């Protein structure tokens, strides 16, 4: 299999603190590439060591040169440096960021374009923080794609992403007590490099006649939290680090692989780790090499996962039943966890019935409309009103955490109660999405479409979650099937789809993670819309109401 590797290391981004473990991280991954027999002509290292500058154009050119070979079967891109997560979008900060808002790698756009690059398997490994921007300057970083913008068509590439930590968490580097106070270690890179070098025998899978062993993406992703926990525990230092790796794997679990060895001939068993020690490079400590203790100890479990616990509790709250009361209109928007101050419906009629219920006058000729809602929390949101349905906005901790829909009953015009099994399933999906959990992992894309075709007319918000899931599963070709009858396509369905350019509602992304993609498909929206508030579903400060009213009038008139 023809493979190529791009290794990116950025010690210093703007005025952010200098990261000391970057060189060692690059060395670890370079050693792995050499141990796999990947030639130097297929490895590019881009680092700011010795005062260099890492620019997005240089990364793009390196990636493009490999893509243009047209014979490449796997491309691995590794990054060690500062990162931020802005509205659920990941950004790798390069040397000139945040001063230059383009000098960052926009992972969402890069992954979307990677699917079109005709390299069957793309792997991104990120040893970077996933915390919210700590300053307004970082919040204004938009970043660039490192993959070329090729035409759509043909089979989409499988794109696997390995993150050093969970959404909202930092990726740690710690001093190495075995070397000097100036030497630091990138914990996550040490572990994933050791795994890729065959240092954890339980991850090795025999194939064919048993003469070869593989490290495959899916088992690696699920083993990394425990492996990192064991690694941190074995450092013998009083650390307060609680770092849990995460990732997204879409490649074929039975076919895709990251490392291949002849049986019993892993890099560690061949002594390559010891060679690294002698050179003073990545393997300068015993942790990076294999030994009798290279297997995962059984007695130390990984730390409890507070994110999963928080998502489970949030799902219970979302599934809690409620009744907004009698609705004397063909459409409505209801809020829980907040109150409405006012409503601006654009070209349709609307009235505020209570401080938590707004009625919207839609007709068969106008079956949907964008509605601007001012919340008592000091925020505002644009939500689609849909004929024959009531939308429910759920607000928690100054975030719009979910928007769901249910049909209006005939006659007494109340919110229809949906199937409890569906409500629980949807609540789990919404909560997992909010906390950055890949709820769709292992799901059948066709099955997601079938569920929408059964339930989507009652609750169109399912299309939003499923569109993002199908895109993550590299099945954008199925997204167009998440279309409602007698209504415009929801914005996120258009955004995550494969070339759709028809009318949409509303005029901006519903899930905040969609904002990272606006530079790819709809740059006019990104340039004209205000910067959204940190929220699962798109939310703005109420100071942006005049601008949003102007945009609503403009877009609804188109």
Automatic annotation (TrEMBL):
It holds the Pfam family Peptidase_C14. Residues 272-310 are annotated as: Disordered. Residues 284-294 have a biased composition (Low complexity). GO terms for biological process: proteolysis. InterPro entries: Pept_C14_caspase. It comes from the Bacteria. One of its GO terms (molecular function) is cysteine-type endopeptidase activity. Residues 5-197 form the Peptidase C14 caspase domain. This is Peptidase C14 caspase domain-containing protein. It comes from Streptomyces gardneri.
